[in-house]
């Protein structure tokens, strides 16, 4: 079977991205060197540089891969959701998969977050990730509360997720994935209940 040059290049790029992703999770941003990536992928330093001319380009590819994996998991969970509230739960759970929400993985992502301010491309990518998360949350929450409250709760959930990942990487006793999910679920329930109470009070006042 004939394999075109383009196909071979696509395969090698995918292999390098996979190797970079695993290297990043194991060693963090600083330890994600081209040499380590090439060694893991079984390719020379020259081949790595041929496909990715800079470390930043590889980091961007790693972020896109991670985002794609979460998006796939989110889509799968959303298909199984039976209600708008269930859709919110699906989005929350996809951000705390048990095989990813570990201290080592969280520390790797903390190292990436710390570098965002010095890398405009990283900042652009992360802003896109944040917007997608909040958009998905708002879409589900609008079926449970007002547009304004949906936006407020979505922003709160996104900030809470960031905080839990930061703490998971910073401390030995950071929350487990089940604890993190439970905290977010309680937060959403409290916020929705608070909105209903405010609506009731406003109705009585009127």
TrEMBL record:
GO terms for molecular function: DNA-binding transcription factor activity; transcription cis-regulatory region binding. It comes from Mesorhizobium qingshengii. InterPro entries: BetI_C, Homeodomain-like_sf, HTH-type_TetR-like_transc_reg, HTH_TetR, Tet_transcr_reg_TetR-rel_C_sf. It comes from the Bacteria. This is Transcriptional regulator, TetR family. It holds the Pfam family TetR_N. Residues 10-70 form the HTH tetR-type domain. Residues 33-52 bind DNA. Keywords: DNA-binding, Repressor, Transcription, Transcription regulation.
